[in-house]
Write a structure and sequence with these properties.
about 160 residues, alpha+beta, Aminopeptidase, 7 helices, 7 strands
Length: about 160
């Protein structure tokens, strides 16, 4: 077995570590994505999420992804397209352990601003992002689902002012 890389060791601690996505992570990330959507978005038919697995599989190569591992097991990931957070997903048995906060902090170290979209009915996520310093800047309808969503932004300068 090979030794962990210097970057991997730098992020390793009792809470786990964050590292770039690797091709071998695909099935685990897809499972976390599907389970997370089914659990957080019960107001959208499950068939919608299941029908998007193929799209998500191809989208993985278009995004910058980071995974968080605990005990050698991937328990969360975040996907980025530029400064847009396409999603943060934490396995249900590891929610409320600060992993989502750590993933955001990891991104905030590398970006001046971030933005994301979140469904209005996903009150837990809206509260989480608000607590993390994101502000609602737009309310719109997500065309594929017909659901209302918020566009939220975070800016480093808003924190330092």
């Amino acid at each position: 077995m090979s030794k962990p890389s210097a970057e991997r060791m730098r992020y390793e601690n009792i809470d786990g570590y964050i590292r770039p996505f690797e091709l071998g992570d695909t099935e685990t990330v897809l499972r976390i994505w599907l389970d997370g959507n089914l659990q957080a978005h019960r107001f959208i038919p499950a068939a919608y999420w299941k029908s998007n697995i193929g799209f998500m599989r191809s989208a993985l190569s278009q995004a910058e992804l980071f995974v968080c591992s605990v005990g050698g097991e991937i328990v969360a990931f975040v996907g980025l397209q530029g400064d847009y957070i396409a999603g943060i997903f934490v396995r249900e048995d590891h929610r409320s352990e600060g992993i989502g906060h750590r993933l955001l902090a990891y991104l905030e170290q590398r970006h001046e601003q971030l933005r994301l979209s979140v469904y209005e009915k996903n009150a837990r996520a809206v509260k989480f992002y608000s607590k993390e310093g994101f502000a609602i800047v737009e309310k719109r309808t997500d065309e594929p689902t017909g659901e209302t969503e918020y566009v939220m932004t975070w800016c480093r300068s808003a924190i330092t002012e």
